[in-house]
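Quick illustration for those who missed Monday's session on complexes.
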Amino acid sequence: MTSPSIVRTSTAELYDAHVMKNYARAPLTLVRGRGTQVWDDAGNSYLDFTSGIAVSALGHCHPHWVAAVQRQAGELIHVSNLFRNPNQGELARRIVGYAGPGRVFFCNSGAEADEGMLKLARLHGVKKAGGEEGRCFKVLVAKNAFHGRMFGGMSATPQEKIQKGFRPLVSGFAVGELNNVESFKALIDDSTAAILLETIQGESGINPCTPEFLQGIRRLCDQHNLLLLADEVQCGAGRTGKFYAIEHAGVRPDVIAMAKGLGGGFPIGAIWAGERAAELFQPGNHGTTFGGTPLACAAALATLDVIEQEQLLAHVTRTSAAWHEALHALAKDFPQHIVAVRGKGFLVGMQMAADPGPWIVALRDRGLLAVSSGNNVIRLLPPLNATAGELAKSVEIFRSALTAKG
Ligand SMILES: *Cc1c(COP(=O)(O)O)cnc(C)c1O
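Prediction with pyridoxal-5'-phosphate bound:
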């Protein structure tokens, strides 16, 4: 037995000594959360408009979510996919209800969902080539896309800062221009199997696909027998006021990857595939140990319960209108600092004239947590149940930071 140590090491010291250095972290240790508020270890509270990067969809510790996770943790946590569990079946049914006829595969993160989609694209290519492997495999992606940090998704992420140091990458990707159907059309040949798009690019600065672009891409996919793969890991699960952002364009993709907000804070990822594409996975060709555990699915079911019971999609749509208006007014008042305001619902990017880092610090010092994104953008990602008052508060804090800078 070791005796309890009397030497108290701070969290900052523990991180410095023992945690890998792959993140540029804020110098803040968070210890407690409730709704839109989080507290640090010095007792300061913050309005949390990071939502753990679009994850904590219901804010922190929503009572319905907490009760569901506590109940399930005392009942059954993990059994693997060697067996059925009731929660996974029910969650699949609920996701099909949002996405349309088809089937769901469960995993644990956005990157893993994207990898699964890419594997479906490969299987589609084999089918398209009459069963021959290696002939039809190419996936078209958009400039500045982000599809996760694993080898497949990273190779589908045409950004030097993400790929640097990790070559050789997975081959078989070609890059088109966002919102330019012709540029994608020009890349299609017999080796093309799929087109992969984020409906709204999150990590590279909140760049939405226009509805016309998505509709044009849908037509291209239909004409050339390509799968349309929608990466809704960040913009899905209600963040834009529809369950999937691609619904705004009236387009149905063949496959949808989701993760971040789906579990309301619990790690879970999923891919939905329409009936045709769903049949591509057969016993043995894909899997994951942890995917769709009773506990993860209980967390996601509780998240969907609250989204539905509290009518959060309508809430996001309704309250975001005034919020966007106020943010646009800020941009008008401070054109020297704010270049553009983009996004939909509770997925907003404020493009600044310079590095957003100092702005993120200025907001934090005033009690607002926000996330930086590519292209000088500050991302504001309130939980889906943030009130009109809290949204207004974020604008007030932003205005105060801008005013101080002059
Ligand atoms: C965050 C994100 C991913 C990766 O998800 P992880 O859970 O971090 O692996 C993939 N695609 C998009 C669009 C994302 O925003």
